[in-house]
């Protein structure tokens, strides 16, 4: 569907709106130069031709369009009825006080940038009336610009533009009250997962003219529809369906991780909380994402999933606001982070599973920021969000109630890395979740799947696999290692280097071992056999040998070593 079709469908929907009358004067502002945009202190809503407007109409409706990247389009229509006499008077005073070149005079009028010069409709003897304010006007209303200002009223001018509205709006003559605004958003999607800027504009308009005057139209058939696949609960799918979908997406989990994850997510009907534990790069986050895609019937790693939310945990989180949000006194809105957005969406779509991934959840002390959620998971009680007696407007335009329960269609997966940069997870947290270890790594099987999807990596795999496998075996014996992410990046780098860098034999894998694997080594006397084993396994790789020799030297001198120190 192209944009012209969408515009026509929207206009048809507005025409069917109960507020439309036979006496409605309709104007379109869908053109690129006429469409809406944000300016300082106002929303520039339209630039339309109202030269033929007459008092015979009982209201005016102006169709407007505002676009947001990457693909959101907000169609909205401004209705003026109760203040129509004021609008008519404004049009007349602008026309009467305007000036333009007389016909055939040969005089030239300098127009505003991008504004067409309109020839006068007055005769040569006509005299312009005194301007009602400090603005310049032209004597016709073929380019009437409308601005919705901070007081919620519509300000008109027929010549020039405002890049920023005047601080003192009282200097502008005859502002017009808006009776209602109807809107629709393209593309149709679940309301809590539309583009943030698009949703904020709707909340902004509601703040300006009153939320009771904002009405959403159901223009497109699938505006609120959710595909049948996205209405399947995970427990309704067989393990084979899940495994096949994840395998098709490139997932490789040979140690039964999918089976354990599927069981842990679904063995209780009202609580779904799983923690995936292991070394960095072993596919913890990827498994959670691929599982959600499999349940929702999506294929491809880049598929857009409106019912999946990734919440990266930050080290400075010491309270629940990173998950459940907070009231911002400056914007007078409740700030909605991804986790709360997921809860709101799950509450609105009870028939669809909504997945949340708390990524690297032990970067901060889990008990500090997750306590309210853990309590709600265990008790079924509501999470207290604010103390207002009425819902607050959220940062994405969604009303936020004072308290909210975690719905049974919310599925939470957390990932934790096991290294010295993270915080330990307490028994309180572990008792409320199923913990799945994902330390097992099957490099041969992973490489088989990789080259099957991308045969061009076959030669790079052959050059890297033996060294990577030997190195990982040595590291694993000491509780260290690397995951699929590192292995894949090594192979991809090798393939790129061979094609573009003309390297010497073995120099690429030598560089990569230092840059991607050995650079993470640290330890003490107990790791001396590990360094000796690596030195033997990486014989013939001079950079790696020098790097390991430096670590051994540090161990001899200081009793400990750390790469990069």
Outline of the structure:
The protein has 565 residues and is an alpha/beta fold. It is built from 16 helices and 22 strands. It folds into three domains: 3-216, no CATH class; 228-437, Rossmann fold (3-Layer(aba) Sandwich), CATH 3.40.50; 449-562, no CATH class.
Structure description:
This protein is α/β, with parallel strands linked by helices and 565 residues long. The chain has three domains: 3-216, no CATH class; 228-437, P-loop containing nucleotide triphosphate hydrolases (Rossmann fold, 3-Layer(aba) Sandwich), CATH 3.40.50.300; 449-562, no CATH class. 34% of the residues lie in helices and 18% in strands. The protein contains 16 helices and 22 strands. It has helices at 3-15, 84-96, 196-209, 239-248, 257-266, 284-296, 321-324, 338-348, 366-379, 427-430, 443-453, 458-476, 484-500, 507-517, 528-537, 542-558, and strands at residues 24-29, 37-39, 42-48, 59-68, 72-80, 144-149, 154-157, 180-186, 214-216, 273-278, 308-312, 326-328, 333-335, 354-359, 383-384, 392-393, 399-400, 403-404, 410-417, 434-437, 522-524, 560-562. The strands form seven sheets. Strands 1-4-5-8-9 form a five-stranded mixed β-sheet, sandwiched between helices. Strand 6 and strand 7 (154-157) form a beta hairpin. Helix 4 crosses helix 6 (284-296). The chain starts with a helix and ends with a strand. Mean pLDDT is 88; it is low at 101-117.
């Amino acid at each position: 569907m192209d944009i012209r079709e969408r515009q026509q469908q929207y206009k048809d929907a507005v025409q069917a709106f109960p507020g439309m009358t036979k006496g409605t004067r309709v104007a379109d502002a869908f053109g690129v130069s006429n469409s809406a945009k944000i300016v300082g202190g106002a929303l520039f809503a339209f630039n339309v031709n109202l030269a033929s407007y007459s008092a015979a109409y009982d209201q005016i409706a102006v169709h407007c369009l505002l676009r947001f990247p990457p693909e959101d389009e907000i169609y909205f229509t401004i209705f003026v009825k109760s203040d129509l006499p004021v609008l008519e008077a404004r049009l007349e005073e602008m026309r009467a006080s305007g000036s333009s070149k007389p016909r055939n005079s040969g005089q030239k009028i300098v127009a505003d940038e991008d504004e067409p010069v309109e020839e006068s409709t007055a005769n040569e003897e006509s005299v312009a009336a005194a301007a009602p304010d400090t603005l310049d006007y032209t004597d016709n209303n073929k380019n009437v610009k409308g601005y919705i200002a901070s007081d919620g009223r519509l300000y008109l001018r027929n010549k020039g533009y405002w890049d920023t509205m005047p601080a003192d709006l009282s200097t502008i003559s005859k502002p017009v009250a808006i009776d209602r605004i109807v809107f629709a958003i393209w593309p149709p999607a679940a309301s809590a997962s539309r583009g943030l800027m698009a949703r904020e504009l709707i909340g902004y308009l509601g703040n300006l003219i009153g939320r009771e005057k904002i009405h959403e139209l159901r223009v497109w058939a699938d505006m609120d529809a959710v595909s049948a696949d996205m209405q399947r609960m995970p427990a309704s799918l067989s393990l084979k369906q899940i495994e096949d979908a994840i395998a098709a997406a490139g997932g490789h989990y040979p140690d039964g991780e999918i089976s354990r994850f599927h069981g842990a997510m679904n063995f209780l009907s009202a609580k779904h909380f799983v923690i995936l534990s292991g070394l960095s790069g072993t596919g913890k986050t990827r498994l959670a994402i691929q599982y959600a895609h499999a349940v929702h019937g999506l294929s491809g790693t880049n598929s857009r999933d409106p019912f999946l939310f990734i919440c990266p945990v930050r080290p400075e989180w010491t309270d629940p606001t990173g998950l459940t949000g907070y009231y911002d006194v400056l914007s007078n809105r409740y700030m909605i982070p991804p986790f709360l957005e997921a809860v709101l969406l799950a509450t609105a779509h009870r028939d669809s599973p909504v997945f949340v991934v708390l990524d690297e959840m032990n970067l901060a002390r889990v008990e500090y920021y997750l306590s309210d959620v853990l309590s709600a998971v265990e008790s079924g009680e509501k999470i207290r969000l604010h103390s207002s007696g009425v819902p607050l407007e959220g940062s994405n335009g969604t009303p936020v109630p004072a308290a909210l329960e975690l719905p049974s269609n919310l599925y939470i997966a957390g990932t934790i890395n096991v290294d010295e940069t993270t915080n330990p997870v307490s028994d309180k947290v572990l008792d409320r979740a199923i913990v799945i270890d994902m330390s097992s790594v099957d490099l041969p099987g992973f490489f088989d799947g990789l080259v099957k999807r991308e045969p061009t990596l076959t030669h790079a795999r052959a050059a890297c696999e033996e060294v990577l496998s030997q190195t990982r075996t040595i590291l694993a014996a000491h509780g260290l290692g690397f995951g699929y992410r590192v292995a894949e990046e090594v192979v991809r780098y090798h393939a790129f280097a061979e094609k573009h860098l003309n390297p010497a034999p073995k120099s690429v894998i030598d560089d990569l071992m230092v840059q991607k694997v050995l650079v993470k080594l640290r330890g003490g006397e107990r790791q001396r056999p590990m360094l000796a084993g690596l030195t033997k396994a990486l014989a013939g790789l001079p950079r790696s040998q020098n790097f390991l020799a430096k670590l051994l030297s540090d161990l001899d001198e200081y009793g400990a070593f750390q790469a990069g120190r």
